[in-house]
Write a structure and sequence with these properties.
Blueprint (H helix, E strand, L loop, with lengths): L15 H7 L6 H14 L7 H26 L1 H7 L14 H19 L2 H18 L11 H23 L5 H21 L4 H7 L4 H4 L2 H25 L3 H21 L3 H27 L4
Helix pairs in contact: 2-3, 2-7, 2-13, 3-5, 3-6, 3-7, 4-9, 5-6, 6-7, 7-8, 8-11, 8-13, 11-12, 11-13, 12-13
Length: 300
């Protein structure tokens, strides 16, 4: 069956819990965290902008990210039937054309909310939605590439969400320091997204998805992921120190040192320790994002 094939409409309305499960709430955290880092990096008072803050969190998390997850699960329903058959679509809990309708509704809601928050937020939302569709759906289907797929995800989850947070508060284009740091953390997120591919190596190989673990092998992919994660943060540290954000640079350096210790264990058995690293090393990475944001925003 082609990815473009749409089953007949189903008379059964899916349960709300299954619709929510389809949007994968656990995946909302990275873009919402990056959005908050963008807010902090702007240096603008939070107390006077709570409405924009809450609207931006909803936009980056449940709306844009949730929509992208629905798109991804719809386009990957055949892969999920192999790797994770209990997911809402392959299990039949969200049947027929419901996933397509939910993805289109989420796209429309994202555009409407983004437009309400200003030009730069709307522009970032448009780019994020393009990547959300192009990552999973033909003709682009970036996720088939072990290079383009993680790069698109890293930019969407970290960079665009950070940009949105800063733009919401500033009502303008963020400064060059903020743009440089968010781009560097987007590059580092490429490595994190590559680690996420380890859990689906068998299904990806069967379905022709050329993730780095499939094309280069798990050990080589793990080394590349670790190198990208570390080098991007070294560049952030250099930028922070050069701009006299000394405490911020020291904090990111300490967190990177702990990540390097975690990487030593990860590369011994990447498929086994990738979930563990996601709970430890990735947590240290996102705390480093906040430390950088606090410096850029003038808090430390």
């Amino acid at each position: 069956m082609s990815d473009l094939t749409i089953p007949a409409a189903s008379p059964r309305v899916p349960a709300l819990k299954d619709v929510v499960a389809l949007t994968k709430p656990v995946t909302w955290f990275p873009p919402m965290w990056a959005f908050l880092c963008g807010v902090v990096s702007s240096g603008i008072s939070l107390s006077d902008n709570w409405g924009f803050l809450l609207a931006g969190i909803v936009l980056t998390g449940p709306v844009v990210c949730g929509t992208s997850q629905v798109i991804n699960d719809w386009c990957d329903r055949h892969v999920d039937a192999i790797n994770e058959p209990d997911r809402p679509i392959p299990s039949g809990r969200v049947p027929g054309r419901w996933p397509v309708g939910l993805a289109l509704a989420g796209t429309a809601l994202s555009l409407a909310l983004g437009a309400m928050l200003g030009f730069w937020v709307f522009a970032a939302t448009c780019v994020a939605l393009f990547f959300g569709w192009a990552y999973s759906a033909p003709p682009f289907r970036f996720k088939r590439s072990g290079w383009w797929g993680p790069a698109v995800c890293g930019l969407s989850y970290e960079g665009l969400s950070w940009f949105t947070g800063a733009a919401v508060m500033l009502a303008a284009l963020p400064g060059t320091n903020v743009l440089a740091v968010l781009l560097l953390y987007s590059v580092g997120a490429f490595g994190i997204m590559t680690l996420n591919d380890f859990k689906a190596v068998d299904g990806d190989a069967q379905m022709g998805l050329k993730s780095l673990p499939v094309t280069l092998g798990v050990p080589s992919a793990a080394m590349i992921a670790c190198a990208v994660i570390a080098l991007s943060q070294l560049a952030v540290i250099a930028l922070l120190l050069a701009e006299q954000f000394t405490l911020s640079g020291i904090a990111v350096s300490a967190l990177l040192a702990l990540q390097l210790a975690c990487m030593v264990r990860l590369v011994r058995d990447p498929r086994r320790f990738a979930p563990w690293y996601n709970a430890t090393g990735v947590s240290l990475y996102v705390f480093g994002m906040l430390a950088a944001a606090l410096g850029l925003g003038g808090y430390i």
